[in-house]
Amino acid sequence: MPVVPPEKLVKLQQQGEGIRNICILAHVDHGKTSLTDALIATNGIISPKLAGKIRYLDSRPDEQLRGITMESSAISLYFSLLRRNAPEAQPEQKEYLINLIDSPGHIDFSSEVSTASRLCDGAVVLVDAVEGVCSQTVTVLRQTWLEKLRPLLVINKMDRLITELKLSPSEAYTHLSKLLEQVNAVMGSFALGERMEDDLRWRERIDEKVTAAAAAKGQDASDGADGVRNGRKTSIAEDDEGLVTSSTPAEYEEKEDEDIYFEPERNNVIFSSAIDGWAFTPRQFAGLYEKKLGIKRHVLEKVLWGDFYLDPKTKRILGPKHLKGRHLKPMFVQLVLEQVWAVYEATLGGPNKKGDHVLLEKITKGLNLSIPAHVMRSKDPKALLSAVFSAWLPLSTALLVSVIEQLPNPPAAQEARMPALLEASPGAERIDAKVKDAMTHSKPAVGEPVVAYVSKMVSVPESELPMNKRRGGMLSADEARELGRKKRAEIARAQAQANGEVDVASVSDALSSAAIGDEDEIAGGTEAEAEQDEDPEHLIGFARLFSGTLTVGDEVYVLPPKYTPARPHALPQPRKVTITALYLLMGRSLESLNSVPAGNVVGIAGLEGAILKSGTICSQLEGAPNLSSTTAISTNAPIVRVALEPAFPGDLDKMIRGLRLLEQADPAVVYEQLESGEHVICTAGELHLERCLKDLRERFAKCDIQAGEAIVPYREGIVRAEEMNAPRDPALGRGRVEGVTTSKQVTIKLRVRPLPAPVTEFLVKHTGAVKRLYSERKAQDKERATPHDGNGTTGDAPEDVGEQDFEAEDSTAEAGQNLSMAEFRQRLVEAFAEDKADNQVWKDIVEKIAAFGPRRVGPNVLIDLTEDMLCGKFLREEHEAAADKAEHANKQSATFADKVAYAFQLATYQGPLCSEPVQGLAVFLEDICIHSSDEEAAQNMGRLTGEIIRTTRDSIRQGFLDWSPRIFLAMYSCEIQASAEVLGRVYGVISRRGGRIVSESLLEPSTNFTILALLPVAESFGFSDEIRQRTSGFAAPQLVFEGFEMLDEDPYWVPTTEEELEDLGEKADRENVAKRYVDKVRLRKGLMLDRKVVESAEKQKTLKR
């Protein structure tokens, strides 16, 4: 096929109507990259014979080695189509530019899926015809739903139904119908969830308006003034009976849900086999049978799928009611599947699996296909199969025609997507109307504001940039002739210098001294070699332009993640950068561009150091939208943490520089330096960690790096167990502690007890809501404090500095952010009410919550039971906050209450078992007694601050250990597809690693099982490799972080009763698993271990000397 020159693609970028931005999404190994190969082959970039084998977009060596995609990569393709504007008109050629992004399917790289989907307008979702809907299939469908992408469903690997499962066409039709139902059930569940939310919002609006109308009516009755009445009636539209008739409809309006489902008759489902290079939609077969059956094409499109039958005598289409007992095959089986099955039978069938040449000739004549004679004589049946299908049902035609017909162009897509996207961005009401209009209508004019979203930074070696390609690239014929002329002249000059003595030695010397290259290159040869050795990495922004035209040399603002148009100049200040280069992304290579109009996917150079992972760039600062804050990156949060160090200490700077580059180039990597000085990276999983270490060693740091053992997070908690040790102080009761400071000046009375499980679960799920409420409260306090202080600073500045380490962390996926204060309070009250056993203890407790912890947002609560509510209320309205501040302004104990709250954050951040964060803890502050005068306390404030923090922290830990402590393990949800033969081996590996099976289901009609299990993260390293080894590669697990699960075993339990001593002995022969985990963490952190170094001293070897 002819190679499409880049100039043609650049020209097509100017035509917004002819652009399609699509991403290919699927579960791992469902055939995304093979499908992409078939599309790339249409542009002559690779040979059609190698499509599906070369995996062109898997450009990394480790991607080729493992056979999976690890990074999303983009390529621009040209496609031309003959279209008629009217049925009788002559067909006209129309040209299209398709910006295609191939994404990974492995769960460790799900962040790459998020970055790809935000840049596109449509999605091609692949599903394996045998495996069906898998875990990542649901994830990518959810991603398309959230991003409002128009999806196309491709049922891939249809050949497996014929060659592996040996299904008949009728059985295959039944199987495909079930598969389509599964996919539509997933889409339906998303629509139902959204409908329920909309219904709830509608009910709330109706209630609000009815309440407002009733209040207005009551007010009018008391005032008795017509003027007021008229004013009310205009503000709240109501009829004579007082019912609201404003913009909120009286009945809930059901949305049309037909568009969300996949239906072959609507041509949004494609049946394909990427490896064999064929695909079709019902529309293609409707065109084939239109003349033969004498039925109009648009009618055939509607009836080729579903319970429709063809009467063989009358050639009429029958519904299921008109069969009259006859056993006819559905039209899809008779007219479509049987024809495809016949081709496989003719090429791969027969007794010797060599095919049936007579049947093949009949098929090629019937379909009017011209297969070259050398292919017909070929002994490779697969080559023959591919040749027949590429002539009859080429994959690229079916897919690209469907993409152009079904998926929207950038102007149409942005008009549908942008309003909701801008509404969800921070400070939406302050976005400039001109910017909003340009983005909504994808205006590409030069004067329009430029807005682009950079979804990730891509690292490219300097040698692969377009300006450096000539060095290692192929020479053209003219360049080769010119170079030859130069070298001949150089040799002649060398001979002339040898005083005319021409001998073999002098010529060979001259040849050896002649360098291949320009004179400038020869002069700087040593520098070029040094550069080649270094080959530094450059970061390029992977971006989508939403409005305006971006040109090289333009100055644009890079908006930070927390930017809001309401406060455009707030810190950190947006940076102004100059665009140094623009690139057309062509998979492994880049092509230079001068300018890019709106609606295109582009590579932007010049953003290095300005954007960490993702960001928005805009030509103006005032009223610019912040698109990066609304992104839904990564379903698999970074959980695996590893400490790194260079093999040679002198390479430390190299390693740190490499880590910063890696953090920018990978959307799911987090790099941090711990207080201990360790350099730690957090990655999404074991495979992701391997890829990051490889990149660090070979590309970013270019030095040998040693990785320590994975640092797995744990949580600590307490429970009320049946057999617990007696309370430490029986007089006070379990969990109650009276802490006295070293100077005996302050006594702190508090009580510790476990939170009810529903409350802990609620707080873990709604961390985002707590964080947002805390930020709002802090902002309100700052606003109130600013007018009182002439310098604009608050009096609590020193304490703020001390506490900032424990403020909320930025996390990528935070649930429940949209809860208001009232909703959050109500839901929390309901969660406490679920605990029936200690109903009196938790009654009205929500009003007394002073803080959440650790980091202000965690699943632990500090409850203030002091008489004056010294710590203040966390869940308070604004007017209550002002009253609290005025009330406690002059109280010395209120100052100490802040220190207690800070100590609570410390105690919950590092628990007593192994200094891991605590969850499910309630700390009741009962009293703070000061045994000195206010003046004395004020003088010793510095010393007392430290004493109170230390005493409170130790008291909370002491109260914690009064209950039965537990450790919570980080757990992976593990999904494995395995055949019945290897099922036992899979179970053996899971049970040996401390996992447990949750469910097991048979995937009909195959003999494969889908196993769902829970596995501790600490035991997961090497799990995938072991599963593959034990099952000979027939099973591969997908691990997703599920959360923390309690290990129901006390790490400090020892046998005490007679029965326990009799069963287990004094040493408790059964291993305490919880103690093993605790000791492992304490050993890593350098904490004290309570273990015997010498078990039996009398048995030691030295005793006999």
Automatic annotation (TrEMBL):
PROSITE patterns: G_TR_2 (PS51722). Residues 775-787 have a biased composition (Basic and acidic residues). Keywords: GTP-binding, Hydrolase, Nucleotide-binding, Ribosome biogenesis. Residues 213-227 have a biased composition (Low complexity). Residues 17-411 form the Tr-type G domain. One of its GO terms (cellular component) is ribonucleoprotein complex. It comes from Friedmanniomyces simplex. SUPFAM superfamilies: EF-G C-terminal domain-like, P-loop containing nucleoside triphosphate hydrolases, Ribosomal protein S5 domain 2-like, Translation proteins. It comes from the Eukaryota. One of its GO terms (biological process) is cytosolic ribosome assembly. The lineage of its organism: Eukaryota, Fungi, Dikarya, Ascomycota, Pezizomycotina. Residues 797-812 have a biased composition (Acidic residues). This is Elongation factor-like 1. The keyword Electron transport does not apply. Pfam families: EFG_C (PF00679), EFG_III (PF14492), EFL1 (PF25118), GTP_EFTU (PF00009), GTP_EFTU_D2 (PF03144).
